[in-house]
C-alpha cells in the first residue's frame, strides 16, 4: 500500500511538472507593437518568490511620464546595413537603434547602432529560445566589439563578452496597485559581462531582470531590474529600476482621477492635425501635450471645454512618422489621461 501511495504521489508530481505549458514565440514583439511604461519608486520593492501558483502583490509608487516604446522594421533604419539579419528594430533614443532577430525559434539581440559607434555582436545574444520550458534555464554566450572617438583625435577599441541566462521561474497571479492579472508568467534574466579596452583596465557587470507577462503577449506588465558594475580599484556602482506597464496601472494611475474623459485618434497621416475628443462633466480648462518616444515635448495646445463632448485640434501635422504619446492635463497641472498616437 505504501509503495502504491508513493507511486501515485510521484505520478502527481510528474503531472504538475509537465502540466504548465511552455512559453512560445507568442511573446515576441512584431512590427507595429507599441507599449507605454512608467517608472516606480524602487524602495522596498523585491521580486518575490519563484514557483508555481504564486501571487505577486505589489503596491507601487508610480511616478513620471508614461514613456512609449515601439517596434519598427529594421530595414530602412539608419544602421540597417550593419545588421543584415535583423528583422526588427527599436528606437533607443538620440538617433540610436537596437536590432533584433525574432522568429518562431528565438528572440535574439544583434547589437546597437548609435551616432558615436556601431556595436555589431560577433556572437549575438539570444534572449530566449523557444519553447522556454518551466524551470529549465537557458544559457547563451555572446560577444561584441566596437570603436569610438576618445574626444582628442584618438580611437578606443572596446570588447565585451558575456553570458545570458533566462529562466521561466514562476507563474500565477500578478497584482499591481489593485489591478489583478491571472495566468501570468515570470522570466528571470541574468547577464554577466566583462568589458576590456585599449585603456589598461577592465570592468564587469552583473544584472538581473525579472519580467512578468501574459504568455500570449510581448508586453511586460512589470519589470524589476538591478545592476552591479565593478570598475576595479574599489569602484562599484549599483542601480535598480522598476517599470510598470500602463496596462497594469490603469488610466487612473497615469494621474489623479479627474472629471475629464479623453479619446484620441489612434492614427493619422503626416499632413493632418489630430483630433482630441474631451468629455467633460463640467466646464474645464486644460492642455494637451504631444511627446515623442524619448519623452521630448513636441507640441501642446490649451483648451477650454464646455460640459459635455468637445473636439480639440492637436498640432500634429508635419510630424515624422512614428509613435507618440498624447497627455491631457487640467489647469491645475493634474494629468487626467494619456493615449497612444501613430503618425503614418
Describe the structure.
With 344 residues, this protein is mostly beta strands. The longest helix has 18 residues, at 2-19. It has two domains: 25-249; 255-343, Macroglobulin (MG2) domain (Immunoglobulin-like), CATH 2.60.40.1930. Helices cover 6% and strands 58% of the residues. The protein has helices at residues 2-19, 246-249, and strands at residues 34-40, 51-58, 62-73, 88-93, 96-103, 106-113, 118-129, 138-149, 155-176, 179-197, 202-213, 222-230, 236-245, 260-264, 267-268, 274-280, 284-291, 297-305, 308-314, 322-330, 335-343. It contains two helices and 21 strands. It is globular, with a radius of gyration of 23 Å. A hairpin with a 2-residue loop joins strand 5 and strand 6 (106-113). The model is unreliable at 1-18 and 251-271 (pLDDT under 50).
Task: Note the topology.
Blueprint: H1 2-19, E1 34-40, E2 51-58, E3 62-73, E4 88-93, E5 96-103, E6 106-113, E7 118-129, E8 138-149, E9 155-176, E10 179-197, E11 202-213, E12 222-230, E13 236-245, H2 246-249, E14 260-264, E15 267-268, E16 274-280, E17 284-291, E18 297-305, E19 308-314, E20 322-330, E21 335-343
Parallel strand pairs: 2-9, 15-21
Antiparallel strand pairs: 1-3, 1-13, 3-4, 4-5, 5-6, 6-7, 7-8, 8-9, 9-10, 10-11, 11-12, 12-13, 14-16, 16-19, 17-18, 17-20, 20-21
Amino acid at each position: 500500500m505504501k509503495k502504491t501511495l508513493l507511486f501515485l504521489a510521484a505520478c502527481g508530481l510528474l503531472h504538475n511538472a509537465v502540466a504548465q505549458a511552455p512559453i512560445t514565440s507568442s511573446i515576441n514583439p512584431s512590427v507595429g507593437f507599441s507599449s507605454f511604461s512608467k517608472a516606480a519608486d524602487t524602495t522596498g520593492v523585491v521580486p518575490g518568490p519563484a514557483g508555481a501558483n504564486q501571487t505577486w502583490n505589489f503596491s507601487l509608487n508610480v511616478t513620471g511620464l508614461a514613456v512609449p516604446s515601439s517596434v519598427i522594421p529594421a530595414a530602412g533604419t539608419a544602421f540597417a546595413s550593419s545588421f543584415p539579419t535583423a528583422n526588427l528594430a527599436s528606437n533607443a533614443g538620440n538617433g540610436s537603434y537596437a536590432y533584433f532577430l525574432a522568429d518562431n525559434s528565438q528572440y535574439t539581440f544583434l547589437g546597437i547602432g548609435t551616432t558615436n559607434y556601431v556595436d555589431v555582436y560577433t556572437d549575438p545574444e539570444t534572449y530566449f529560445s523557444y519553447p522556454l520550458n518551466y524551470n529549465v534555464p537557458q544559457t547563451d554566450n555572446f560577444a561584441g566589439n566596437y570603436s569610438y572617438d576618445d574626444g582628442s583625435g584618438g580611437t578606443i577599441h572596446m570588447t565585451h563578452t558575456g553570458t545570458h541566462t533566462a529562466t521561466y521561474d514562476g507563474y500565477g497571479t500578478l497584482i499591481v496597485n489593485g489591478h489583478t492579472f491571472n495566468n501570468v508568467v515570470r522570466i528571470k534574466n541574468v547577464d554577466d559581462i566583462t568589458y576590456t579596452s585599449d585603456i589598461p583596465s577592465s570592468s564587469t557587470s552583473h544584472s538581473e531582470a525579472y519580467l512578468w507577462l501574459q504568455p500570449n503577449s510581448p508586453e511586460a506588465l512589470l519589470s524589476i531590474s538591478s545592476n552591479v558594475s565593478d570598475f576595479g580599484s574599489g569602484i562599484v556602482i549599483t542601480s535598480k529600476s522598476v517599470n510598470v506597464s500602463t496596462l497594469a496601472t490603469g488610466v487612473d494611475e497615469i494621474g489623479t482621477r479627474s472629471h475629464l474623459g479623453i479619446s484620441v485618434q489612434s492614427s493619422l497621416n503626416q499632413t493632418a492635425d489630430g483630433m482630441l475628443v474631451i468629455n467633460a462633466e463640467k466646464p474645464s480648462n486644460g492642455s494637451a501635450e504631444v511627446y515623442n518616444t524619448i519623452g521630448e515635448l513636441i507640441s501642446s495646445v490649451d483648451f477650454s471645454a464646455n460640459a459635455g463632448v468637445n473636439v480639440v485640434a492637436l498640432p500634429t501635422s508635419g510630424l515624422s512618422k512614428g509613435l507618440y504619446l498624447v497627455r491631457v492635463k487640467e489647469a491645475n497641472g493634474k494629468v487626467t489621461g494619456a493615449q497612444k498616437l501613430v503618425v503614418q
